[in-house]
Structure formats: structure tokens, C-alpha cells
Design a protein that fits this description.
The protein is α/β, with parallel strands linked by helices. The protein contains five helices and twelve strands. It is globular, with a radius of gyration of 15 Å.
Length: 182
């Protein structure tokens, strides 16, 4: 299925979700993520700051920010910069996403785990993003363990890929965990 078709279908499906369904799905997905050995062993974790239509990361950040060192992306031109998450150092940034402020940019190579947002994933770890390539460029610069998180309906059979697309190592939904074989 081509990426534009996937984006349209997922967008339409997300509009049907109630707030309770959104909250419950996020709780289930992040509860599954918390049980991973890779999560337990990771101290430096890049996570996304969720948009209203994405699985919310807010409760997860609140729960774990005392025990893990989280980083959030900040758009800088065509790339993402990674900065430590501190709730008091946030401001509205590119694409109406709240981003961290400051100058303490961290190298992506320091990340042990990256929790990757996407519009959809397939069972091979391929992803459809929002179309700007930010995460593909970022993932090309790191060897961190990568986890895609999504609603069940965001897991599709197959995604058409381009040569610059970088798959994730694992996809977690409310009811599925898909591991990509390297």
C-alpha cells in the first residue's frame, strides 16, 4: 500500500477515537514497553512529545522521568536536535509541537533507546512518517534500539519503502509486539 493511502486511512480512523480509547491505548502500549529488558537497561532514551492524534507520551514521561534520562527532539532546519527533557524548559516549536529549549544538544549516538512516532508500521518494522524524513535522517546517525509505538490499526501488512527509509527494531501496539529480524 502506498504511503499517501496509508496516511489518509489512518488519519480517518484516528478521528473516530474517543478520549477514553486514546488514553486506554496509550496505557496499554507503554505498559508493554515498560516490561522490555531493553527499556530496563536503557538510561538515555529519546522519546517524542506527542501531538493530539498520537499515542500520548505525557503520563509515561511523568512516571519515568525521575528514573530515566529522557530526551526530546527539536527541529533545526532539516534535522532533529536532541535535548534533555525538563518540563520547565519547553516552548512551542516547529509544526506546533512543544520542544525543549537550551543549548545542551546531545549526540544521537548517546541514545540507548529511541521511541519512534509514525503514522503506520508494517510487520517488517517499516514506517510511514508524516513525510518530512526527520526520523529517517536521525535514525541513520544512531545504533540505538528503536521501538515504534502505535494503535493496533496503525499496524499494516506492508508498506512501500524508499532507499532512505529506516525500519525500527520493534513495534508495540495495544495487543501486538512485532520484532524485526536484522
Amino acid at each position: 500500500m502506498n504511503k499517501d493511502d496509508i496516511r489518509r486511512r489512518v488519519r480517518a480512523r484516528k478521528r473516530l477515537l474517543t478520549e477514553d480509547e486514546r488514553r486506554e491505548a496509550a496505557e496499554k502500549v507503554f505498559s508493554r514497553l515498560e516490561k522490555l529488558a531493553a527499556f530496563a537497561l536503557s538510561d538515555n532514551i529519546l522519546i517524542y512529545n506527542s501531538l493530539p492524534d498520537e499515542l500520548s507520551t505525557r503520563s509515561f514521561l511523568d512516571k519515568w522521568s525521575a528514573g530515566k534520562r529522557f530526551f526530546l527532539p527539536r527541529v533545526n532546519g532539516l534535522d532533529l536536535e536532541l535535548l534533555p527533557f525538563e518540563s520547565t524548559r519547553m516552548q512551542m516549536g516547529a509544526f506546533r509541537i512543544e520542544e525543549p529549549t537550551g543549548d545542551d544538544v546531545t549526540d544521537p549516538g548517546c541514545m540507548e533507546m529511541i521511541i519512534v512516532p509514525a503514522v503506520a508500521y508494517d510487520r517488517s518494522g517499516n514506517r510511514v512518517g508524516r513525510g518530512k524524513g526527520y526520523y529517517d535522517r536521525l535514525l541513520a546517525r544512531t545504533s540505538a534500539f528503536t521501538v515504534g509505538v502505535a494503535y493496533d490499526f496503525q499496524l499494516v501488512d506492508e508498506i512501500d519503502t524508499d532507499e532512505f527509509d529506516i525500519p525500527v527494531d520493534m513495534v508495540i501496539t495495544e495487543t501486538h509486539t512485532v520484532v524485526r529480524r536484522r
